[in-house]
Each structure stands twice: as structure tokens, then as C-alpha cells.
Specification:
The relative contact order is 0.20. This protein has a single domain, classed as Alpha-Beta Plaits, CATH 3.30.70. It contains five helices and four strands. β2 and β3 form a beta hairpin. The protein has about 180 residues and is α+β, with helices and mostly antiparallel strands. The N and C termini lie far apart (about 40 Å). α1 packs antiparallel against α4. Strands 2-3-1-4 form a four-stranded antiparallel β-sheet, covered by helices on one side.
Length: about 180
């Protein structure tokens, strides 16, 4: 009998209007966050690169990995955001998407690119700060589409309880 994890697509395409559990870890079990300032900077970069594209329902930032429960904004919201950007500020993926007719647009490439830009921006800053080189994050980042309301509720619990799961504290409600 196959394990249920064998059926999960950890690199599923990202689509407007859907919920996803997004997670990633560092390479070689290195720390992603050495201080609260690193966590704040991670969230600042997240705001900069991803908040126009998705809403966050909950998250957990641990030493060497993180979890996010997000919902991708509706297609019309995404399109309006991109059209509101000056052309010179649009990424290659964004320009390519907007050049297609709406019925041919595949948003996954743009959304995945935004995550990659976010990871790169954070990694470049901490590499400079910590005097390190190379990839900080494991590639590719993982994401799982939320299947139904029960899955969504379980993920809210799972993300909040993650510090306890990893033995960081007994009462996960006290984790910052």
C-alpha cells in the first residue's frame, strides 16, 4: 500500500482563487533566521514581493524552515495590479503573461516567479549580512493545494502547532 504522501504534488501549479500550504527550508539545515530582525526582514520582503498576489491566513517561521497558508488573489485583482505597474517595473514573466489573451494566461509562472524573487531578495540580504555565499533556500519551494475545508482547518492547526512538533516549546500558543 502506498503512503498518502506519494500522491501529494509538492510542486503543484499556483492558480488564482485557491488556497495553498507553501513551505521551504534552508539548505543543509542552516538557519534561515538568526534573529528577530531576520524574521522581520523576511516578512518585509514577503510584503514587498508577494502581498499584491496573495493573502496570508497564517504562518510559522522556525529556525531553518517556514510554513505559510495563503490564498492567491482572484485573476481580476492580479491583472489590475499588473496593469497598474509601470511597464519598466514589470518582470519578464509579468510582461509575457500580459501579452497573452486572457483565455491563454497561465498565472502559475508569474506566481512562482514572484516567490523566487522573494527568496532571492531575502537570501541576497542575509548572505551579505552573514558573510555567506550561495543558495540559502532549498529548491524548488514546496506548495500543496488545499483540498477542502477540513484540510484548511487542519493546516491552521498544523502551522500553529509546528513549534511544539519540533520541540521548541511545550505550549505552541506562546511561540511568537
Amino acid at each position: 500500500m502506498k503512503k498518502i504522501t506519494e500522491y501529494i504534488n509538492y510542486e503543484c501549479p499556483l492558480a488564482p482563487g485557491y488556497f495553498y500550504h507553501v513551505f521551504n527550508r534552508s539548505n543543509n539545515k542552516e538557519l534561515l533566521f538568526r534573529s528577530d530582525e531576520n524574521r522581520k526582514y523576511f516578512l518585509k520582503k514577503f510584503q514587498e514581493y508577494l502581498s499584491p498576489f496573495l493573502a496570508v491566513y497564517c504562518y510559522c517561521l522556525l529556525g531553518n524552515h517556514f510554513h505559510l497558508l495563503v490564498r492567491i488573489r482572484e485573476e481580476r485583482e492580479l491583472e489590475n495590479y499588473l496593469l497598474g505597474l509601470p511597464i519598466q517595473e514589470r518582470s519578464i514573466a509579468q510582461k509575457k503573461l500580459l501579452s497573452l489573451s486572457p483565455d491563454l494566461r497561465m498565472w502559475s509562472d508569474v506566481l512562482t516567479s514572484q516567490f523566487q524573487r522573494f527568496f532571492t531578495g531575502y537570501a541576497m540580504a542575509v548572505n551579505k549580512q552573514w558573510g555567506r555565499q550561495g543558495n540559502l533556500f532549498h529548491r524548488p519551494f514546496q506548495r500543496v493545494a488545499v483540498q477542502d475545508e477540513n484540510h484548511l482547518m487542519w493546516l491552521v492547526y498544523y502551522l500553529h502547532a509546528n513549534p511544539k512538533k519540533h520541540g521548541l516549546m511545550e505550549d505552541f500558543r506562546r511561540y511568537p
